## 1
Amino acid sequence: MTRIVLWMLVSCLTVAVFASEQIPAEHNLSADQIVEKNVAARGGLDAWRKVQTMAWVGHVNSANDPARDLPFVLALKRPNKTRFEITVLNQKALRVFDGREGWKVNPSGMGSGNMRPYTMDELKSARDEQVIDGPLIDHDAKGVSITLDGIDKVDGHDAYRLAAKLPSGVIRHVWVDAQTFLDVKYDREARGAHGPVTVEVSYSNYTNVDGLQIPLVIESGAAASGKRDKLSIDKVSLNPPLDDVIFAKPASQGRRNSVSVNVSASPPALPAMSRPTP
């Protein structure tokens, strides 16, 4: 669900290092029990299975960009389609993945930029993502194996550290709060200028959206740097009608399909978003 957003926004970050500890005796839940409680806390397996598409509207504040409150629209469709648009200085940057191939458009200072295919590393990451609901929900059906690695302190609270082995063989880590059983952190490896780096993403401000718990604040950054990129979700829509054409290869320069939230717009535009409920 939320993991792919900041990967689209941030291509690489410096290494993030955090302390961990062994599971104390009182924490005796198995990995399966933790996942079961996590799924229940987030709204239940049946409810998440009914979500076939999702769309977000919000704004981004990046530590790497002096501009503030950059508006974005994210469209997600099972099994693994994504479209992310962000507006920078009245120009749109675009990333599109159709489940197999990906394309990106970064505007230049002179106007619309050129469309480029994803790099091999970007393709590998995009193909590994579990869009909409993440690796824990329905993990057996997705071919994801979950093991319990330990427990860490996350924002002063105990959080179970789960290792999720994806079908590709890649290992991702998910931290589940020991009290709320909601996801609070996630990590993935990325290629940096001087080799592999670990990207950390944290989740907060969970809000009820039609019975599902969805984090409305997502932050990413290296622990040592003190810099954080913050994505805030203002509006959420579950199961909007998303035509596959909006996930197809973008048209030629200057004729890209735009993801709109105008309720009167015709497909492939997105419908008006529903506001989360407290």
## 2
Amino acid sequence: MRELSELIEVENPAWPVLGEELRAAAVPVELPDADAGRGAAALLQTQVTARSFLGAFLLHSGGAFVDDGWLRVYGSPAAGDPRRLPGLAQVNGYPAEVDPHWRPEGGLVVAHDVLGGVFMIQGGTTEEVGLPGQPGEMVYFAPDSLRWDALGAGYAAWLSWTLSGGTEEFYEGLRWPGWRDEVRDLDGDRGLTLYPPLWSAEAHQDLAGTSRRVVAMAELLGLERETCREFDGADPGFLGTV
């Protein structure tokens, strides 16, 4: 494993560029302060350098609520734990002590959306992890189709895209009038479950007319996994621990 100094003391660190993108984002972004010590530990276990967007985000931010909280991007544990936004280490079940032999299951979960969608960095070949895409590519578990899709971009391009307003087109057909008021103040470990469920035709006939309930994100992810198993006997794999 590379030492922490090798990961942090790099030429051309990404934070000046990423920090500017966060400040100039086309959508509202709330950026909790990072817990520096736990952020450094997470960086060491992840083994990415501060030259990358992922390393810079881990080191300098306590995560982010993007687009009025519709999307939660995970960084270091937030200092003081405001709004219960978990860190990347918790979401991916990092070991308590840095372990050079530990690897995340399938890939690294880097974000959840309020509907239970999961953004992950693909961690191996399709044969190895059962996911689409290539190693290092972003993949998305969609709550309306209950399947994984490859996004054709890496973490840095994906994060820049979200900050530039890409979520508006990406979630077209999955948002309803007044969604911002329902989402804006939710804690980072909470999501929305819909009835009729989002994967049903009935929900899309009148999305605004669905019944929506705030639930723990862990409950929402568990329901999605259980539904996948019941429908086609396929397990979508690890969706994150929140």
## 3
Amino acid sequence: MTTVEDRKRSAFGRVARRLVVDTTPLRESPDYRRLWTGHAVAIIGTQMTRVAVPYQVYVLTDSTLMVGLVSLAQLVPLLVCSLFGGSIADAVDRRKLLIITECLLTAVVGGLALTALLDSPPIWAIFALTAASAGLSALESPTRSASVASLVRKEILPSAFALNQSLTQVGAIVGPAVGGVVIAFLGLSATYGLNVATLIIAITVVSRMRPMPPAHAVTRPGIKSIVEGLTYLKSKPAVMGCFLADLNAMFFGMPRALFPAIALDQLNGDAVTVGLLAAAPGIGALIGALTSGWVTTVKRQGRAVIVSIIVWGLAIAAFGLSHWLWLSMFFLMLGGVADVISAVFRQTVLQLSVPDHLRGRLSATHIGVVTGGPLLGDARAGATASATSPAFAMVSGGVICAAVMVLLGWRLTALRRWTLADAATDPPPTAKSNATT
């Protein structure tokens, strides 16, 4: 007979399962586990480099504007490669494409390590290598994202994206924190060198995945393929709403370009302080991801995106007002929690609104927004801070982000009402002459 204590333990177990991140995708799919593991290793080194580049540019130039411009220099290759990368990801073996792009990324980061050994590193070389890295990442990221939906069941897809966010945020915490320490004690070249090592490990793990050729007939890569994807996007207002919501959050609310100035000037810190600020959003996001077992119980995923981004904007505005490191990190962590919940549901809406033969192209468009938005946001923040102050740039950006999201939430009816019932279905496999295998 069930006792009161048994019922209490059972209830506690149900609550715990709803809070702790669901690891079912890792248990069920060996290939998803390999994809996840490879990215888990690579993201640590990548985040170290993302701290090292703006720090190096700020130290060399003493200019927040130059830090913003190094981000802006990545925008064109990122957007161009995103568009063409998505059409390629839909038409070729995605596993092979992942391996090729990660090999090229290894060479580019190796170039950054070599320039850091110079007494006076040329700024143009840092700009060029960082731009090349952005372009290659725009090929790799949509390929990886588009692969997930074909590796796990639809019902556990939110859990898979929560797991992705968990490892991304671990990297966002460990990478910047370790990067700051490595920069301070070993130098920039060693920081870039560690990124090279993590990429080599990731390539080795991903190479063990099974081949992932196109499951359906697809249009050959090129302009026609890109137009086909963009045309489909126009028919999905909920996905368009996710893109607009994320672009708003990153353009007005992204604080990354101002971390060096705020850490060194407003908080009177050093390179380690820069690393701590850069890690703080990841700490919050990791907390949000690791307690995301409840995401599968949310019925209106689109509405969750809207609320999360409003919280993000308000947290960033509060960060801009702080003059104490612990309080600054608290608000950045709060923003990180909101951001990761938004990311989980945005990915769910995107991947389940699009059939598999279009996921590469739509994922590429999404990556272009997700990574292009912060680059524009860095440029906006750097320019605003140069004309006013870093604090004003942060506070005004966060407030505008929250206000715009309230307006978008009211206008974007399709996103506000989106549920799993709106998921797309894949067409049956066909064998058209224009298919690429």
## 4
Amino acid sequence: MEMIIACSVLGIVAGLLAGMLGIGGGVVIVPALIIILSAQDFPSEFIVITAVATSLCTIIFTSISAARAQIKRQAVDWAIFRLWAPTVVAGSFLSGFVAARIPAVILEIGIAIFLLVISLIMLSRWVPNPSRSMPGKPGTSGLGLFSGVLSGLAGIGGGNVMVPLMVFFNVSMQRAVATSSALGLPLALMGTLGYVISGWDLHIAPWSVGYIYLPAVVLIALFTVLLAPVGVALSHRIPAPTLKRCFGGLLLLVAGRMLFAAL
């Protein structure tokens, strides 16, 4: 019962954040699932990678809901989407095989440090050079590959990487959030497939497929799908600077919690 309640609340929070910030909700789902699985006597050596893989799987459903809402508002930058999608997909698929070879504590600390750096950038008064624009096709594709690998390793659906990168190149916050939501679907699909294949023979727990824990997927996804459109509506009503600070503050809290738990 405790797990049902915890995953349901997690789904509500993650759905709102996914729609509002374009982050897929993984930034909240991963650390929360680490705590939830630890309380369920889950095999300790598989807790972190299962949380990452399960988070990516829920983002499949969240991204469909959030992307549909953003597309209806015509907020997605399809030029960036077309350039990033192939390399984001490739990087995300590879991440499942890379993560399986990284010790759990190193993976957790790495995710926390990455989130900490991004949070400090988003909370600062840094403003991109107004003359800067997205690089050419090779550079933009390279950014997509980087986003896919890093997002897949962290189980965060890409927004935490892609939104700051797009803002760095003077894409507006709302447009970056919308484009990230659309890119989250192919990223999560291929990342999930990678984690299923790389953990296929392990049989970690009942109702696990590879590194994916299905009961958590069902409970979280149910609520993220319902709440993501509400988050999208909020994202178009909140001023960009406020949205940016919310994004940074959330990441800072999550990163601190993960570092404390790992160390």
